[in-house]
Design goal:
Strand order of the largest sheet: 4-9-8-5-6-7
Radius of gyration: 27 Å
Distance between the termini: 43 Å
Oligomer: single chain
Number of strands: 9
Strand content: 5-15%
Helix content: 40-55%
Mean pLDDT: 78
Low-confidence stretches: 1-32, 218-254
Protein backbone atom coordinates (compact mmCIF):
# COMPACT_ATOMS: atom_id res chain seq x y z
CA UNK A 1 0.00 0.00 0.00
CA UNK A 2 3.02 2.28 -0.34
CA UNK A 3 4.69 1.77 3.03
CA UNK A 4 3.33 2.50 6.50
CA UNK A 5 5.23 5.16 8.43
CA UNK A 6 4.34 6.53 11.84
CA UNK A 7 6.88 9.38 11.90
CA UNK A 8 7.38 10.02 15.61
CA UNK A 9 8.02 6.41 16.46
CA UNK A 10 9.80 4.98 13.44
CA UNK A 11 13.19 5.99 14.84
CA UNK A 12 12.28 5.36 18.46
CA UNK A 13 10.82 1.89 18.13
CA UNK A 14 12.86 0.43 15.29
CA UNK A 15 16.57 0.31 14.77
CA UNK A 16 16.94 -1.42 11.43
CA UNK A 17 13.29 -1.75 10.39
CA UNK A 18 12.48 -0.01 7.11
CA UNK A 19 8.80 0.81 7.15
CA UNK A 20 8.91 3.24 4.23
CA UNK A 21 9.76 2.26 0.66
CA UNK A 22 11.01 5.75 -0.09
CA UNK A 23 13.91 5.79 2.40
CA UNK A 24 17.10 7.59 1.32
CA UNK A 25 19.50 5.27 -0.50
CA UNK A 26 22.38 6.18 1.78
CA UNK A 27 21.52 4.87 5.24
CA UNK A 28 22.57 6.81 8.27
CA UNK A 29 24.40 4.90 10.96
CA UNK A 30 22.23 4.04 13.93
CA UNK A 31 23.20 4.88 17.49
CA UNK A 32 24.17 1.24 17.93
CA UNK A 33 26.60 1.27 15.00
CA UNK A 34 28.38 4.39 16.23
CA UNK A 35 31.46 3.83 18.42
CA UNK A 36 33.51 0.74 19.21
CA UNK A 37 32.27 -2.85 19.02
CA UNK A 38 30.80 -3.67 22.43
CA UNK A 39 31.69 -7.34 21.88
CA UNK A 40 35.31 -6.81 20.76
CA UNK A 41 36.64 -8.81 23.74
CA UNK A 42 34.34 -11.80 23.15
CA UNK A 43 36.49 -14.92 22.77
CA UNK A 44 34.87 -17.75 24.76
CA UNK A 45 37.01 -20.39 26.46
CA UNK A 46 36.34 -23.60 28.32
CA UNK A 47 36.84 -23.83 32.06
CA UNK A 48 40.01 -25.46 33.44
CA UNK A 49 38.27 -26.36 36.71
CA UNK A 50 37.00 -29.78 37.77
CA UNK A 51 33.29 -30.63 37.63
CA UNK A 52 32.97 -30.22 41.41
CA UNK A 53 34.78 -26.88 41.38
CA UNK A 54 32.58 -25.63 38.56
CA UNK A 55 29.47 -26.70 40.44
CA UNK A 56 30.54 -25.01 43.70
CA UNK A 57 31.39 -21.80 41.85
CA UNK A 58 27.97 -21.67 40.17
CA UNK A 59 26.14 -22.63 43.36
CA UNK A 60 27.92 -19.88 45.31
CA UNK A 61 26.06 -17.29 43.23
CA UNK A 62 22.57 -18.45 44.20
CA UNK A 63 20.38 -17.84 47.21
CA UNK A 64 17.97 -20.22 45.49
CA UNK A 65 18.69 -22.77 42.76
CA UNK A 66 15.95 -24.43 40.70
CA UNK A 67 17.29 -27.05 40.84
CA UNK A 68 20.67 -28.26 42.10
CA UNK A 69 20.30 -31.64 40.38
CA UNK A 70 19.64 -30.04 37.00
CA UNK A 71 22.58 -27.69 37.48
CA UNK A 72 24.90 -30.67 38.00
CA UNK A 73 23.43 -32.44 34.96
CA UNK A 74 23.99 -29.32 32.84
CA UNK A 75 27.65 -29.04 33.88
CA UNK A 76 28.21 -32.74 33.12
CA UNK A 77 26.80 -32.33 29.61
CA UNK A 78 28.29 -29.01 28.58
CA UNK A 79 31.77 -27.52 28.86
CA UNK A 80 30.25 -24.19 27.85
CA UNK A 81 26.69 -23.36 28.84
CA UNK A 82 24.60 -20.27 28.12
CA UNK A 83 23.78 -17.87 30.98
CA UNK A 84 21.25 -15.10 30.57
CA UNK A 85 20.45 -11.83 32.24
CA UNK A 86 18.63 -8.83 30.85
CA UNK A 87 19.01 -5.27 32.01
CA UNK A 88 17.09 -2.13 31.25
CA UNK A 89 19.31 0.92 30.81
CA UNK A 90 17.52 3.32 33.16
CA UNK A 91 19.47 5.98 34.97
CA UNK A 92 22.38 5.42 37.37
CA UNK A 93 23.91 2.04 38.30
CA UNK A 94 24.16 1.08 41.96
CA UNK A 95 26.70 -1.38 43.43
CA UNK A 96 24.32 -4.33 43.43
CA UNK A 97 23.90 -3.95 39.69
CA UNK A 98 27.54 -3.04 39.15
CA UNK A 99 29.93 -4.85 41.52
CA UNK A 100 27.71 -7.81 42.48
CA UNK A 101 26.83 -8.53 38.86
CA UNK A 102 30.51 -8.33 37.83
CA UNK A 103 31.43 -10.82 40.60
CA UNK A 104 28.64 -13.24 39.66
CA UNK A 105 29.39 -13.09 35.94
CA UNK A 106 33.10 -13.78 36.59
CA UNK A 107 32.19 -16.81 38.72
CA UNK A 108 29.90 -18.26 36.04
CA UNK A 109 32.33 -17.61 33.16
CA UNK A 110 35.15 -19.20 35.19
CA UNK A 111 32.93 -22.28 35.42
CA UNK A 112 32.53 -22.36 31.63
CA UNK A 113 29.48 -20.15 31.23
CA UNK A 114 28.99 -17.94 28.18
CA UNK A 115 27.13 -14.99 29.61
CA UNK A 116 24.59 -13.31 27.33
CA UNK A 117 23.49 -9.84 28.41
CA UNK A 118 20.19 -8.84 26.86
CA UNK A 119 20.44 -5.04 26.61
CA UNK A 120 16.73 -4.40 26.89
CA UNK A 121 16.57 -1.02 25.15
CA UNK A 122 13.18 -1.73 23.59
CA UNK A 123 11.83 -3.10 26.87
CA UNK A 124 12.95 0.09 28.65
CA UNK A 125 11.00 2.04 26.05
CA UNK A 126 7.85 0.01 26.75
CA UNK A 127 8.43 0.48 30.47
CA UNK A 128 8.53 4.26 29.91
CA UNK A 129 12.11 4.65 31.14
CA UNK A 130 14.10 7.84 30.33
CA UNK A 131 10.85 9.50 29.22
CA UNK A 132 10.61 7.00 26.34
CA UNK A 133 13.69 8.42 24.57
CA UNK A 134 15.36 5.46 22.81
CA UNK A 135 18.56 7.39 22.02
CA UNK A 136 19.09 8.14 25.73
CA UNK A 137 18.28 4.53 26.64
CA UNK A 138 20.89 3.20 24.19
CA UNK A 139 23.55 5.62 25.41
CA UNK A 140 22.91 4.39 28.94
CA UNK A 141 23.26 0.79 27.77
CA UNK A 142 26.80 1.57 26.56
CA UNK A 143 27.50 3.44 29.79
CA UNK A 144 26.53 0.36 31.86
CA UNK A 145 28.88 -1.81 29.77
CA UNK A 146 31.76 0.60 30.39
CA UNK A 147 31.12 0.50 34.15
CA UNK A 148 31.26 -3.32 34.15
CA UNK A 149 34.54 -3.20 32.26
CA UNK A 150 35.94 -0.79 34.85
CA UNK A 151 34.63 -3.03 37.66
CA UNK A 152 36.74 -5.92 36.36
CA UNK A 153 34.17 -8.03 34.54
CA UNK A 154 35.99 -10.59 32.35
CA UNK A 155 34.43 -10.04 28.95
CA UNK A 156 36.01 -12.96 27.07
CA UNK A 157 32.98 -15.14 27.79
CA UNK A 158 30.47 -12.28 27.77
CA UNK A 159 28.32 -11.12 24.87
CA UNK A 160 25.95 -8.13 24.77
CA UNK A 161 22.88 -8.27 22.51
CA UNK A 162 20.61 -5.32 21.80
CA UNK A 163 16.95 -6.32 22.10
CA UNK A 164 15.85 -3.85 19.42
CA UNK A 165 18.23 -5.41 16.85
CA UNK A 166 17.71 -9.08 17.71
CA UNK A 167 13.92 -8.91 17.85
CA UNK A 168 13.72 -7.21 14.45
CA UNK A 169 16.07 -9.78 12.90
CA UNK A 170 13.87 -12.71 13.96
CA UNK A 171 10.52 -11.06 14.57
CA UNK A 172 8.35 -13.90 13.26
CA UNK A 173 10.02 -16.45 15.53
CA UNK A 174 10.14 -14.15 18.53
CA UNK A 175 6.53 -12.99 18.53
CA UNK A 176 5.15 -16.46 17.81
CA UNK A 177 6.72 -17.73 21.01
CA UNK A 178 5.74 -14.64 23.01
CA UNK A 179 2.10 -15.10 21.98
CA UNK A 180 2.24 -18.81 22.79
CA UNK A 181 3.45 -18.07 26.33
CA UNK A 182 0.82 -15.35 26.70
CA UNK A 183 -1.94 -17.64 25.41
CA UNK A 184 -1.07 -20.29 27.98
CA UNK A 185 -1.13 -17.91 30.96
CA UNK A 186 -4.03 -15.92 32.37
CA UNK A 187 -3.91 -12.17 32.83
CA UNK A 188 -4.14 -12.74 36.57
CA UNK A 189 -1.05 -14.97 36.44
CA UNK A 190 0.96 -12.46 34.43
CA UNK A 191 -0.03 -9.55 36.67
CA UNK A 192 1.73 -11.34 39.52
CA UNK A 193 4.97 -10.72 37.62
CA UNK A 194 4.65 -6.94 37.44
CA UNK A 195 7.07 -6.63 40.35
CA UNK A 196 9.97 -7.16 37.93
CA UNK A 197 9.14 -3.78 36.43
CA UNK A 198 9.20 -2.06 39.82
CA UNK A 199 5.42 -1.70 39.74
CA UNK A 200 2.85 -2.80 42.27
CA UNK A 201 0.04 -5.04 41.01
CA UNK A 202 -2.40 -2.13 41.26
CA UNK A 203 -0.28 0.24 39.18
CA UNK A 204 -1.99 1.75 36.14
CA UNK A 205 -0.08 -0.38 33.66
CA UNK A 206 -0.05 0.13 29.92
CA UNK A 207 -1.28 -2.84 27.88
CA UNK A 208 2.25 -3.43 26.56
CA UNK A 209 3.61 -3.88 30.08
CA UNK A 210 1.47 -7.01 30.45
CA UNK A 211 3.55 -8.57 27.67
CA UNK A 212 6.85 -7.58 29.19
CA UNK A 213 7.17 -10.86 31.05
CA UNK A 214 6.33 -13.12 28.13
CA UNK A 215 8.87 -11.24 25.99
CA UNK A 216 11.97 -11.44 28.16
CA UNK A 217 13.74 -14.77 27.51
CA UNK A 218 12.51 -15.85 24.09
CA UNK A 219 15.23 -14.76 21.69
CA UNK A 220 17.77 -17.25 23.05
CA UNK A 221 16.07 -20.34 21.66
CA UNK A 222 18.79 -21.21 19.16
CA UNK A 223 21.57 -20.61 21.66
CA UNK A 224 20.00 -23.34 23.77
CA UNK A 225 19.70 -25.77 20.87
CA UNK A 226 16.32 -24.57 19.60
CA UNK A 227 13.20 -24.13 21.71
CA UNK A 228 10.25 -25.55 19.82
CA UNK A 229 6.61 -25.79 20.82
CA UNK A 230 5.67 -28.49 18.31
CA UNK A 231 1.94 -27.88 17.97
CA UNK A 232 2.30 -24.34 16.62
CA UNK A 233 5.68 -23.64 15.04
CA UNK A 234 5.02 -25.35 11.70
CA UNK A 235 1.38 -24.39 11.50
CA UNK A 236 2.05 -20.68 11.80
CA UNK A 237 4.57 -20.85 8.93
CA UNK A 238 7.38 -19.87 11.29
CA UNK A 239 10.67 -21.66 10.71
CA UNK A 240 12.19 -21.75 14.15
CA UNK A 241 14.33 -24.80 13.54
CA UNK A 242 17.13 -24.00 11.08
CA UNK A 243 17.25 -27.66 10.06
CA UNK A 244 13.71 -27.92 8.70
CA UNK A 245 13.33 -30.37 5.81
CA UNK A 246 13.74 -28.65 2.44
CA UNK A 247 10.58 -30.19 1.03
CA UNK A 248 7.59 -29.03 3.04
CA UNK A 249 4.78 -31.47 3.71
CA UNK A 250 1.30 -30.46 2.57
CA UNK A 251 -1.16 -29.91 5.38
CA UNK A 252 -4.32 -32.01 5.38
CA UNK A 253 -7.63 -30.36 4.51
CA UNK A 254 -8.97 -28.48 1.53
CA UNK A 255 -6.96 -28.58 -1.69
CA UNK A 256 -4.74 -25.52 -1.77
CA UNK A 257 -6.05 -23.23 -4.51
CA UNK A 258 -5.97 -19.52 -5.12
CA UNK A 259 -8.72 -18.05 -2.96
CA UNK A 260 -8.32 -14.75 -4.83
CA UNK A 261 -8.68 -16.09 -8.38
CA UNK A 262 -11.72 -13.87 -9.05
CA UNK A 263 -10.01 -10.67 -7.81
CA UNK A 264 -10.15 -8.07 -10.61
CA UNK A 265 -11.10 -4.70 -9.07
CA UNK A 266 -13.18 -2.19 -10.99
CA UNK A 267 -14.33 1.38 -10.44
CA UNK A 268 -17.92 2.24 -9.67
CA UNK A 269 -20.21 3.54 -12.40
CA UNK A 270 -22.47 5.33 -9.88
CA UNK A 271 -22.60 9.04 -9.09
CA UNK A 272 -21.00 10.41 -5.91
CA UNK A 273 -24.41 10.75 -4.21
CA UNK A 274 -25.42 7.21 -5.19
CA UNK A 275 -22.13 5.83 -3.88
CA UNK A 276 -22.59 7.68 -0.59
CA UNK A 277 -26.19 6.51 -0.15
CA UNK A 278 -25.19 2.91 -0.88
CA UNK A 279 -22.39 2.98 1.71
CA UNK A 280 -24.50 4.80 4.31
CA UNK A 281 -27.37 2.30 3.92
CA UNK A 282 -25.21 -0.31 5.65
CA UNK A 283 -24.58 1.56 8.88
CA UNK A 284 -26.56 1.81 12.07
CA UNK A 285 -23.73 4.14 13.09
CA UNK A 286 -21.17 5.93 10.89
CA UNK A 287 -18.04 7.59 12.29
CA UNK A 288 -18.35 9.94 10.52
CA UNK A 289 -20.64 10.78 7.59
CA UNK A 290 -18.58 13.86 6.66
CA UNK A 291 -15.37 11.84 6.45
CA UNK A 292 -17.16 9.19 4.39
CA UNK A 293 -18.22 11.82 1.85
CA UNK A 294 -14.68 13.28 1.75
CA UNK A 295 -13.27 9.80 1.16
CA UNK A 296 -15.60 9.10 -1.76
CA UNK A 297 -14.73 12.46 -3.32
CA UNK A 298 -11.00 11.70 -3.13
CA UNK A 299 -10.94 8.03 -4.14
CA UNK A 300 -12.66 6.08 -6.90
CA UNK A 301 -11.50 2.89 -5.18
CA UNK A 302 -11.18 2.84 -1.41
CA UNK A 303 -10.01 0.06 0.91
CA UNK A 304 -12.63 -1.58 3.13
CA UNK A 305 -11.68 -3.93 5.94
CA UNK A 306 -13.31 -6.63 7.97
CA UNK A 307 -11.70 -9.51 9.78
CA UNK A 308 -13.31 -12.81 10.60
CA UNK A 309 -12.28 -15.66 12.81
CA UNK A 310 -12.98 -19.07 11.30
CA UNK A 311 -14.74 -20.65 14.24
CA UNK A 312 -17.38 -23.27 13.67
CA UNK A 313 -20.59 -22.75 11.75
CA UNK A 314 -21.67 -19.58 9.93
CA UNK A 315 -25.06 -18.08 10.77
CA UNK A 316 -27.11 -15.85 8.47
CA UNK A 317 -25.88 -12.59 10.02
CA UNK A 318 -22.34 -13.54 9.08
CA UNK A 319 -23.32 -15.15 5.79
CA UNK A 320 -26.18 -13.34 4.08
CA UNK A 321 -25.88 -9.91 5.75
CA UNK A 322 -22.12 -9.76 5.11
CA UNK A 323 -22.58 -10.75 1.45
CA UNK A 324 -25.20 -7.99 1.02
CA UNK A 325 -22.99 -5.36 2.73
CA UNK A 326 -19.88 -6.30 0.78
CA UNK A 327 -21.76 -6.12 -2.53
CA UNK A 328 -23.03 -2.63 -1.64
CA UNK A 329 -19.55 -1.36 -0.80
CA UNK A 330 -17.85 -2.90 -3.83
CA UNK A 331 -20.58 -1.49 -6.09
CA UNK A 332 -19.72 1.92 -4.63
CA UNK A 333 -16.04 1.42 -5.55
CA UNK A 334 -14.79 -0.32 -2.44
CA UNK A 335 -12.01 -2.90 -2.56
CA UNK A 336 -12.97 -5.18 0.28
CA UNK A 337 -10.10 -6.81 2.19
CA UNK A 338 -11.11 -9.78 4.30
CA UNK A 339 -8.54 -10.45 7.02
CA UNK A 340 -8.88 -14.21 7.57
CA UNK A 341 -7.85 -14.15 11.20
CA UNK A 342 -6.57 -17.71 11.54
CA UNK A 343 -3.86 -16.72 14.00
CA UNK A 344 -6.29 -14.57 15.99
CA UNK A 345 -8.67 -17.52 16.25
CA UNK A 346 -5.78 -19.53 17.64
CA UNK A 347 -5.13 -16.89 20.32
CA UNK A 348 -8.84 -16.74 21.07
CA UNK A 349 -8.83 -20.52 21.62
CA UNK A 350 -11.28 -21.28 18.81
CA UNK A 351 -11.60 -24.84 17.46
CA UNK A 352 -9.60 -26.10 20.47
CA UNK A 353 -6.57 -24.19 19.19
CA UNK A 354 -6.14 -26.45 16.12
CA UNK A 355 -4.75 -24.21 13.34
CA UNK A 356 -5.48 -26.80 10.62
CA UNK A 357 -9.17 -26.87 11.50
CA UNK A 358 -9.21 -23.08 11.71
CA UNK A 359 -7.72 -22.70 8.22
CA UNK A 360 -10.07 -25.28 6.70
CA UNK A 361 -12.97 -23.33 8.18
CA UNK A 362 -11.62 -20.15 6.64
CA UNK A 363 -11.86 -21.73 3.19
CA UNK A 364 -15.30 -23.07 4.03
CA UNK A 365 -16.53 -19.58 4.93
CA UNK A 366 -15.23 -18.23 1.61
CA UNK A 367 -17.12 -20.96 -0.29
CA UNK A 368 -20.33 -20.05 1.56
CA UNK A 369 -19.98 -16.39 0.60
CA UNK A 370 -19.45 -17.40 -3.03
CA UNK A 371 -22.62 -19.51 -2.89
CA UNK A 372 -24.50 -16.62 -1.21
CA UNK A 373 -23.77 -14.40 -4.23
CA UNK A 374 -20.92 -12.25 -2.97
CA UNK A 375 -19.30 -10.48 -5.94
CA UNK A 376 -15.60 -11.35 -5.54
CA UNK A 377 -14.15 -9.10 -8.29
CA UNK A 378 -13.43 -6.36 -5.74
CA UNK A 379 -12.80 -8.72 -2.81
CA UNK A 380 -9.46 -10.01 -1.57
CA UNK A 381 -8.82 -12.52 1.22
CA UNK A 382 -5.59 -12.31 3.22
CA UNK A 383 -4.43 -14.92 5.74
CA UNK A 384 -3.29 -13.19 8.93
CA UNK A 385 -0.67 -15.85 9.66
CA UNK A 386 0.99 -15.28 6.27
CA UNK A 387 0.81 -11.49 6.17
CA UNK A 388 2.03 -10.97 9.72
CA UNK A 389 5.04 -13.23 9.15
CA UNK A 390 5.91 -11.43 5.90
CA UNK A 391 6.15 -8.07 7.66
CA UNK A 392 6.51 -9.12 11.28
CA UNK A 393 8.85 -6.32 12.35
CA UNK A 394 6.49 -3.65 11.01
CA UNK A 395 3.36 -5.32 12.37
CA UNK A 396 4.57 -5.97 15.92
CA UNK A 397 6.19 -2.56 16.22
CA UNK A 398 2.79 -0.94 15.69
CA UNK A 399 1.01 -3.44 17.98
CA UNK A 400 3.43 -2.60 20.78
CA UNK A 401 3.14 1.12 20.08
CA UNK A 402 -0.67 0.98 20.38
CA UNK A 403 -0.36 -1.13 23.54
CA UNK A 404 2.19 1.25 25.06
CA UNK A 405 -0.08 4.24 24.49
CA UNK A 406 -3.15 2.67 26.08
CA UNK A 407 -3.65 1.52 29.65
CA UNK A 408 -4.65 -2.01 30.55
CA UNK A 409 -7.94 -0.60 31.81
CA UNK A 410 -8.61 1.04 28.43
CA UNK A 411 -7.85 -2.13 26.49
CA UNK A 412 -9.97 -4.27 28.80
CA UNK A 413 -12.97 -2.21 27.72
CA UNK A 414 -12.47 -3.66 24.22
CA UNK A 415 -12.57 -7.33 25.23
CA UNK A 416 -16.21 -7.46 24.18
CA UNK A 417 -14.97 -7.91 20.59
CA UNK A 418 -13.94 -11.43 21.59
CA UNK A 419 -17.35 -12.30 22.99
CA UNK A 420 -16.01 -11.98 26.54
CA UNK A 421 -17.30 -9.89 29.42
CA UNK A 422 -14.81 -7.42 30.88
CA UNK A 423 -14.32 -9.57 33.98
CA UNK A 424 -13.71 -12.78 32.08
CA UNK A 425 -10.66 -14.78 33.09
CA UNK A 426 -8.75 -13.78 29.97
CA UNK A 427 -5.44 -15.17 28.87
CA UNK A 428 -2.65 -12.60 28.67
CA UNK A 429 -2.65 -12.87 24.86
CA UNK A 430 -6.33 -11.87 24.72
CA UNK A 431 -5.38 -8.48 26.16
CA UNK A 432 -3.31 -7.95 23.03
CA UNK A 433 -6.13 -8.98 20.72
CA UNK A 434 -7.73 -5.48 20.59
CA UNK A 435 -4.30 -3.92 19.99
CA UNK A 436 -3.72 -6.35 17.13
CA UNK A 437 -7.13 -5.69 15.61
CA UNK A 438 -6.50 -1.94 15.75
CA UNK A 439 -3.11 -2.55 14.10
CA UNK A 440 -4.79 -4.50 11.27
CA UNK A 441 -6.63 -1.36 10.21
CA UNK A 442 -3.40 0.58 9.65
CA UNK A 443 -1.40 -2.44 8.50
CA UNK A 444 -3.90 -2.96 5.65
CA UNK A 445 -4.19 0.79 4.96
CA UNK A 446 -7.96 0.56 5.43
CA UNK A 447 -10.07 3.60 4.58
CA UNK A 448 -13.29 2.04 5.89
CA UNK A 449 -13.85 -0.40 8.76
CA UNK A 450 -17.06 -2.28 7.99
CA UNK A 451 -17.83 -4.42 11.01
CA UNK A 452 -20.74 -4.97 13.36
CA UNK A 453 -21.76 -2.56 16.10
CA UNK A 454 -20.24 -5.03 18.59
CA UNK A 455 -16.79 -4.08 17.26
CA UNK A 456 -17.31 -0.40 17.98
CA UNK A 457 -14.97 -0.21 20.98
CA UNK A 458 -11.88 -1.40 19.15
CA UNK A 459 -12.70 0.80 16.14
CA UNK A 460 -12.83 3.81 18.45
CA UNK A 461 -9.48 2.69 19.92
CA UNK A 462 -8.05 2.81 16.39
CA UNK A 463 -9.52 6.27 15.74
CA UNK A 464 -8.03 7.56 19.02
CA UNK A 465 -4.62 6.18 18.06
CA UNK A 466 -4.84 7.73 14.59
CA UNK A 467 -5.62 11.11 16.15
CA UNK A 468 -2.64 10.85 18.53
CA UNK A 469 -0.23 9.79 15.79
CA UNK A 470 -1.71 11.99 13.04
CA UNK A 471 -2.48 8.96 10.86
CA UNK A 472 -5.34 8.58 8.40
CA UNK A 473 -8.49 8.09 10.49
CA UNK A 474 -10.61 5.21 9.20
CA UNK A 475 -14.29 5.74 8.51
CA UNK A 476 -16.26 3.29 10.65
CA UNK A 477 -19.49 1.94 9.19
CA UNK A 478 -21.06 -0.31 11.82
CA UNK A 479 -23.89 -2.51 10.63
CA UNK A 480 -26.74 -3.34 13.04
CA UNK A 481 -26.72 -6.58 14.98
CA UNK A 482 -29.08 -9.29 13.78
CA UNK A 483 -31.06 -10.32 16.84
CA UNK A 484 -31.08 -13.90 17.94
CA UNK A 485 -34.26 -15.95 18.02
CA UNK A 486 -35.61 -16.05 21.58
CA UNK A 487 -38.22 -17.96 23.56
CA UNK A 488 -40.72 -16.29 25.88
CA UNK A 489 -38.54 -16.48 29.01
CA UNK A 490 -35.50 -14.96 27.30
CA UNK A 491 -37.70 -12.25 25.76
CA UNK A 492 -38.83 -11.19 29.24
CA UNK A 493 -35.20 -10.89 30.34
CA UNK A 494 -34.39 -8.73 27.32
CA UNK A 495 -37.40 -6.48 27.95
CA UNK A 496 -36.09 -5.39 31.35
CA UNK A 497 -36.83 -1.78 32.25
CA UNK A 498 -34.83 0.42 29.87
CA UNK A 499 -35.85 3.75 31.38
CA UNK A 500 -32.79 3.80 33.65
CA UNK A 501 -30.33 2.75 30.93
CA UNK A 502 -27.93 5.21 29.34
CA UNK A 503 -26.93 5.14 25.66
CA UNK A 504 -23.97 2.81 26.27
CA UNK A 505 -26.08 0.36 28.31
CA UNK A 506 -28.77 0.29 25.62
CA UNK A 507 -26.13 -0.36 22.95
CA UNK A 508 -24.60 -3.15 25.04
CA UNK A 509 -28.05 -4.67 25.50
CA UNK A 510 -28.48 -4.84 21.72
CA UNK A 511 -25.09 -6.47 21.34
CA UNK A 512 -25.88 -9.10 23.96
CA UNK A 513 -29.15 -9.91 22.14
CA UNK A 514 -27.36 -10.63 18.84
CA UNK A 515 -27.53 -13.94 17.02
CA UNK A 516 -24.72 -16.08 18.41
CA UNK A 517 -23.17 -19.46 17.69
CA UNK A 518 -22.95 -20.13 21.41
CA UNK A 519 -26.75 -20.59 21.50
CA UNK A 520 -27.61 -22.78 18.46
CA UNK A 521 -31.35 -22.31 18.95
CA UNK A 522 -30.96 -18.52 18.69
CA UNK A 523 -29.18 -18.70 15.34
CA UNK A 524 -30.13 -19.81 11.84
CA UNK A 525 -27.05 -21.32 10.26
CA UNK A 526 -26.23 -21.18 6.57
CA UNK A 527 -26.37 -24.96 6.21
CA UNK A 528 -29.54 -25.52 8.30
CA UNK A 529 -32.20 -27.56 6.55
CA UNK A 530 -35.61 -26.07 5.76
CA UNK A 531 -37.10 -28.22 8.55
CA UNK A 532 -34.52 -26.96 11.07
CA UNK A 533 -35.16 -23.31 10.13
CA UNK A 534 -38.91 -23.83 10.52
CA UNK A 535 -38.43 -25.48 13.93
CA UNK A 536 -36.29 -22.61 15.26
CA UNK A 537 -38.74 -19.96 14.05
CA UNK A 538 -41.78 -21.76 15.48
CA UNK A 539 -40.24 -22.06 18.95
CA UNK A 540 -39.38 -18.36 19.04
CA UNK A 541 -41.53 -15.45 20.15
CA UNK A 542 -42.33 -12.46 17.94
CA UNK A 543 -44.95 -10.22 19.50
CA UNK A 544 -47.55 -8.81 17.07
CA UNK A 545 -47.67 -5.03 16.61
CA UNK A 546 -44.34 -4.56 18.47
CA UNK A 547 -41.45 -3.38 16.33
CA UNK A 548 -39.03 -2.45 19.14
CA UNK A 549 -36.23 -5.03 19.56
CA UNK A 550 -38.57 -7.65 18.14
Amino acid sequence: HGGLVFPEDEKKLTVETKLAKAEPEEEKKSALEAGPDINAAFNPKKSELSLEERYRLCASVGEEILSEDRLMELLKKKDNFICYDGFEPSGRMHIAQGLLKAINVNKLTSAGGIFIFWVADWFALLNKKMDGDLAKIQDLGKYFIEIWKAAGMNLENVKFLWASEEINKRADEYWTMVMDIATKNTLKRVLRCTQIMGRDDGYELSASQIFYHACKPQIFSRLHGGLVFPDQVHTLSTKIDEHEPEEEKKEPGFEAKDINAAFNPKKSELSLEERFDLCASIGEEILSRDRLMDLLKKKDNFICYDGFEPSGRMHIAQGLLKAINVNKLTKAGGIFIFWVADWFALLNKKMDGDINKIQDLGRYFIEIWKAAGMNLENVKFLWASEEINKRADEYWTMVMDIATKNTLKRVLRCTQIMGRDDGYELSASQIFYPCMQATDIFFLKADVCQLGLDQRKVNVLAIEYAEKEKLNKPVVISHPMVMGLVNKNKKKEQDADESKMNEKELRDKKIKAKMAKADPNSAIFMEDSAEEVARKIKQSVCEPQNIKDN
